[in-house]
Design a protein that fits this description.
Structural class: alpha/beta
CATH class of the largest domain: Alpha Beta
CATH architecture of the largest domain: 3-Layer(aba) Sandwich
Strand order of the largest sheet: 1-2-10-7-8-9
Number of domains: 2
Largest sheet: 6 strands, mixed
């Protein structure tokens, strides 16, 4: 049988095409990508899960509010390695409004006020708050999103970066000279007075609402209902200690309540910066010397670089969970600065002063507990 030139050409071309296809198949099968996909498919087949259910992707949400909560829990490799423990950090800086745990609090305060008819979106209302910065940033962002004006009173010794950011977010900012809480010029008292004056003035649009982060139940409940249960789920209920500082006390109290309900032996540890009186309150039952009645302390707070945590008085939010705190540790500025440098150099984690205090406290707690334990803190 003789082949025509056309048939020979067709056969030759087909052979080349088949060879090329087989070569591509060989490259794909031997590639790392195929190995990962094949392993993943086998794991899914064994577990009976589909790709969509296996990958827990957050669905699309509505507005900046939908980015708050369900933050990742990460292991801090360097601290875990040196202690032999697993030291976790709840990545609260990934909350999407103000990039801090205060996002939860601000959202809780606003939504509860709305449900009670105390705030009306886009109704000309103003939210007043006294804050050292983080809560103000969260409130200012959410007020923008929900149609309110934010009026923030903050101590003048706080960083200008915070007040400048607040201004860019559209808030009114008053930098108030530091004063004791018994003084009506104290930044918290100033915010309360302004809210009352606004509401009482019939010539002003809307109402004034005092957020009252230090005393409101909405604060600790945000962490009791959110942060605490998330930690339990992410660790599969394996937490030996939770360590955090206290600014209002809401995070520590709310998380402590949630953890203690599920874990009988979990330790709750307060990490307190220098200049704060909460360490003494936990360890000795009194804020200061017995000759100084609590709440009347008029001398200046001891200087500290740490912003956002540490108090020279107790609050309703701190008292909510104080009896659940097992221990307090005092953290110096030098320790906080060294920890901040360590984390960025060893783990690529860039944190501020309050998060650094939390991590020093977590490190000390892990060393005290010994290898094999799990410690959780907040960033």
């Amino acid at each position: 049988m003789q082949w025509t030139s056309r048939e020979l050409l067709l056969g030759f071309t087909t052979g080349i095409a088949v060879t090329l296809v087989l070569d591509q198949v060989r490259r794909y099968v031997t590639s790392p990508y195929f190995g990962r996909r094949h392993t993943h498919s086998q794991a899914q087949a064994k577990s009976g899960t589909s790709s969509s259910s296996a990958d827990s992707i957050r669905p699309a949400g509505s507005g900046i509010e939908s980015t708050i909560g369900n933050t990742p829990l990460i292991v801090i490799p360097s601290l875990s390695k040196v202690t032999g423990c697993t030291i976790y950090a709840k990545a609260e800086f990934l909350n999407g409004a103000g990039n801090s745990p205060k996002d939860r609090v601000a959202l809780s305060i606003i939504t509860r006020a709305e449900s009670q008819g105390l705030l009306t979106p886009h109704g000309g209302d103003t939210v007043y708050e006294g804050t050292s910065g983080s809560t103000g940033i969260s409130l200012a962002t959410l007020c923008r999103a929900r149609g309110y004006l934010a009026h923030i009173c903050m101590p003048s010794d706080q960083s200008h970066e915070k007040s400048n950011l607040l201004l860019k977010l559209g808030a009114i900012v008053e930098r108030v000279t530091p004063a004791p809480i018994v003084d009506q010029a104290h930044f918290v008292n100033r915010a309360r007075i302004l809210a009352d004056q606004h509401t009482a003035d019939p010539t002003r649009p809307g109402r004034g609402y005092f957020a009252n982060q230090f005393e409101t139940e909405a604060n600790w409940r945000a962490h009791y209902e959110g942060t605490g249960p998330e930690i339990l789920a992410q660790t599969e209920n394996k937490v030996d200690a939770f360590v955090a500082g206290a600014g209002t006390g809401g995070t520590l109290s709310g998380v402590a309540m949630a953890l203690k309900e599920q874990l009988d032996n979990v330790k709750i540890v307060l990490a307190d910066p220098q200049g704060s009186g909460l360490y003494n309150k936990v360890q000795h039952g009194v804020m200061f010397h017995s000759l100084e009645r609590e709440g009347t302390r008029r001398r200046d707070q001891v200087d500290s670089i740490v912003e956002g945590i540490g108090l020279t008085r107790s609050t309703a939010n701190f008292e909510q969970g104080r009896e659940l705190i097992d221990e307090a540790v005092k953290i110096t500025d030098a320790q906080a600065k060294n920890m901040a440098r360590w984390l960025v150099e060893q783990d690529g984690i860039f944190v501020g002063s309050s998060s650094a205090v939390n991590c020093v406290g977590a490190l000390q707690t892990a060393i005290k507990l010994g290898p094999g334990h799990s410690v959780v803190t907040i960033l």
